[in-house]
Amino acid sequence: MSAQHIHPEPTTFLRKYWFSTDHKVIARQFLWLGCFFLAWGGMMAMLIRWQLANPGEPFPLIGQLLMPRSGGIVTPSAYTTLFTMHGLIMIFWGITPVLIGFFGNFCIPLMIGARDMAFPTLNMASFHTMFIASVILLGSFMVPMGSGAAGWTTYPPLSTQVGTPGWGQTIVVIAIFFAGVATIMGGINYVTTVIRLRAPGMGYFQMPLTVWGQWLTAILNVLFVPVLGAAALLLILDRTFGTEFYINGSMATENTGDPILFQHLFWIFGHPEVYILILPAWGIISDLLAFFSRKPAYWYKGTALGMTAVTILSAVVYGHHMFVTGMNPLLGKSFMLLTLIISVPAEVFFLNWLHTMWKGSIRWTVPMAFSVGVVFVFGLGGLTGLFLGTISTDLYLHDTYFVVGHFHLTMAAAAFLGSFAGIYFWFPKVYGRMMSEKIGKWHFWLSFITINAVFCGQLVVGWGGMQRRLYDPSVYTFLEHLGGVNKLISYAAFVLGISQLLFVYNFIASMIRGEKAGDNPWHVGTLEWSVPSPPKHYNFDPIPTVYHGPHEYSNPKVTGKDWVGQWEPPDVIGGPPAGEEKKGEAASGSTQAAE
Amino acid sequence: MKRLIPLAAFGAVMTGAAAAFAERLTGPQREAGLGLPRDVSLDGYRIDSLLMSTAVLTTILFVIMIVWLVWALVVHRDGKHKAEYDTGDGKKHVTTAVMISSAVFLIVDGNLFLNAMVDMSEAFWNFPTSDETVKIEINAQQWAWRARYSGTDGEWNTADDVVTLNDVRVPEKTPVVLQLASVDVIHSFFLPNLRVKTDAMPGVINRLWFQAQETGQFEIACAQHCGVHHYKMRGVLTVLSDEDYADWLRRMSAEATRAYDPNDEDARWGWEWDREEAN
Predict the structure, then answer these.
(1) Do B112 and A553 touch (CB under 8 A)?
(2) Is pLDDT above 90 for A2?
């Protein structure tokens, strides 16, 4: 274990803000990148919803500007690009940079008492690889025949030259490959940092659950994003060099390529990916619910181990995405059982969340509101997953809007509200100022109500049998009566989109002239609140020693306040004075303690 | 208190909506309601009843969750009382949490799992073997469904094969087995009113079976994104009475024989029936 050196703070603008190795700067870079693409992907969602509400009518106001050749009308080919790129951008360029790039980078070192990531230069390289991926991605919109159009799942043969000729789809797949490389770099960094750089006294079970979520996510990233990389690389070869990994019929019967091979590779990555996107949000709200209920997180170990169990199970359930591909019945039934088993650990930590709030003293702040919102949408999303993990019901619901509603509730709505919970919560630490509670509450209620309306509406039309990715559902008579619901969903989506301007305003205005935040405005006890807001260049000097768990709230042994900092000496709760704690405990808790 | 009014109102509205929705789903089927499309198949009831029972169970869980959340936010809000210091890892707490989770798992997931196992083995993956089974080959393309019947002689790729476009006709109350393939990209053959769906893929022959219980016209939809005009890939399934079907097939077969061109290789895209349905 090497000591964590304190390097001098960079002085040039470029080293300070662009080629920075400081995890806090890189976190902010990821945040801005992520927010840019969330807005971009959100705008695409608005266009999709406009088309579904008013098929074939020109998009108002800026339609002419966006799609001049069609006079502002979303054409069928534009529509395929919209839903394809909406999915890819939101997942790889929106949620990943914000939930993993921003929160992971900002929170992990500060919450475990480290001065920076284990590999600061790799961390910098991760952001710049992501930046290159973003430039490549944006380039795909400027080539003839448009950007990717094969759906975010890019199933071949549709994603090969057979179905999507032109450069757009190739560029998109290359961009995904680069984004994957960036994610793996970050993942390696997070895993190593958590294992090696925990402050003395911080065992795995003294880590805040935010760090648990990030750590498990990073492990999944390191294990499964390479599979996506392999799948993408083969697809690039198929598209540009005429190989036939994914075309030309079945490998089993003709010894040539096989489109199903891609689906296996994609979902081996793809199912862990949905947990990659949601684990950080689970972690964040597991902490925030305890912080704002002023109560210890209920059965902390159950939550941590439950999330771990879900992480492990996520690797062995991917077959439920392929129930209707003509899969071997025995395989199908095995995947069904494994999928349903995931509900056990998920229920355990879900019950823990509900229990954490029970008999607490709940402070209804904006981060708390968003956390409760996550519990709500995740509950709804989790329950609807049951219908899709079962083969017979999936036979009907597969590839309908029910699937769209389900995965948006679990990984889009929950990740979205979870991100806001985290941003409102850590904003004071990032920028040293508070965000407006009043605007935040408005933002919460508008977002929460409309996001539920949108995705519950999608569940309803999916239940009625409406397939995904339909340019104009009124082609089918059995879907005609769903036009009204589709309109309602769209109007809710527009309100949802517009209400995000409140957040943008709140964020920027608070950054400039928000009320100054002290070191610890929320009165919570995790390590990042022991340092000034914003923290100094190298966070901690000296590195703190940890004596308590992350959720010591309303401990009756403490007088005068209802929280205990993890850094506070053990005698605040009646333990022995600092320096006399059991030696063995500290040593087993952290590798760094042996330093 | 004031700040909690919207919350309580939202909880009440959501609870009501969930209850109304569950009633809507489980109530009698309507042609244009928000429920499932009308089921006209032999085995669709299996899927419908499993969807319904799960909808009821999950709605109950969902309502409990909402009541719990709203209740906790109202009675345990800041200033009401001091928070209880409870880390929740006492033996009693842990046992209770695991028991509740297991109970929910056994009831909700158990119901799904057992029913699905039975339904798949007895119906959806139990391909009919009787002689009266109607066999049809479906070859999907961007953006249409081509169907081939072996005609009166029962041989594939012969002069009397009946070939149709976006028009599949089957007799009522008779098992129908489809073999599905595709010439270009992956499509998915979806019959909403019969609750079945299977992908049609290039290079692989997939299969699907159903039995329609009443005559009429129903829609064939493509469920898998297959390109720009995916949304237009609509076909019609016509369920005819036995006599009408036999009559139609005979007429079409004779017409096909008359129009047969032995030099037209492309017209003979059919394949030898891939697998005999044996158990």
Answers:
(1) no
(2) no
Average pLDDT over residues A240-247: 87
In the stretch 202-261 of chain B, residues with CB closer than 8 A to chain A read 202-204, 206-207, 219, 221-232, 234
Residue A595 above 70 pLDDT?
A: no
Interface test with B, best of A48, A324, A344, A397 (most B CBs within 10 A): A324
* Cβ–Cβ gap B86/A250 under 8 Å: no
* More reliable by pLDDT, A102 or A251: A102
CATH no. for residue B178? 2.60.40.420
pLDDT at A64: 87
Answer whether B46 touches A (CB < 8 Å). yes
Q: Are both B174 and B53 inside the same structural domain?
A: no
B226 in any annotated domain: yes
d(CA A335, CA B121): 16
E strand intervals along A27-149: none
Q: Crossing angle, helix A259-293 and helix A103-112, to 10 degrees?
A: 50
Query: What pLDDT is attached to residue B81?
Result: 84
pTM for this model (two decimals): 0.92
Residue A344 to residue B105, Cβ atoms within 8 A: yes
Residue A6 lies in a domain: no
Sheet with B196-200, side-by-side order of all strands = B167-171, B235-240, B216-222, B187-191, B196-200
Say which of B50, B77, B207 has its CB closest to residue A362: B77
Number of domains in chain A: 1
- Candidates B6, B46, B201; nearest CB to A392: B46
E strands of chain B, at which residues?
134-141, 144-149, 162-165, 167-171, 175-182, 187-191, 196-200, 206-211, 216-222, 235-240
| Residue A297 belongs to a domain | yes
Same domain (yes/no): B216, B249:
yes
Query: What pLDDT is attached to residue A573?
Result: 80
Q: What is the pLDDT of residues A370-402, one digit of tens each?
A: 999 999 999 999 999 999 999 999 999 999 999
Spatial contact of A92 and A98, defined as CB atoms under 8 Å apart: no
Residue A587 has pLDDT above 80, yes or no: no
Single-letter amino acid, residue A262: F
In a domain, A384, yes or no: yes
Residues A522, A526, A529, A530, Cα dihedral to 10°: 140
Q: Would strands B167-171 and B235-240 be described as parallel, antiparallel, or unpaired? A: parallel
Query: Is position A1 within any domain?
Result: no
Cβ contact B184–A163 (<8 Å):
yes
Q: Do B203 and A254 touch (CB under 8 A)?
A: yes
Q: Helix or strand or coil: residue B60?
A: helix
Q: Which amino acid, B10?
A: F
Mind telling me how many Å the CA of B133 is from chain A's nearest CA?
20
pLDDT of B221-239, one tens digit each? Answer: 999 999 999 999 999 999 9
Domain-located, residue B278: no
Span B66-83, mean pLDDT? 90
Q: Find the helix packing angle between A483-513 and A437-463, rounded to 10°.
A: 160
Chain B interface disruption, residue of A245, A289, A362, A401, most B CBs within 10 A: A362
Res B34: pLDDT: 84
Quick one: DSSP state of residue B169? E
* Reported confidence tier of residue A91, pLDDT bands at 50, 70, 90: very high
Chain A residues with beta carbon closer than 8 angstroms to that of B111? none
CB contact under 8 A, A361 and B80: yes
Total domains present in chain B: 2
Cβ of B102 within 8 Å of Cβ of A301? The answer is: no
Identify whether B104 is part of a domain: yes
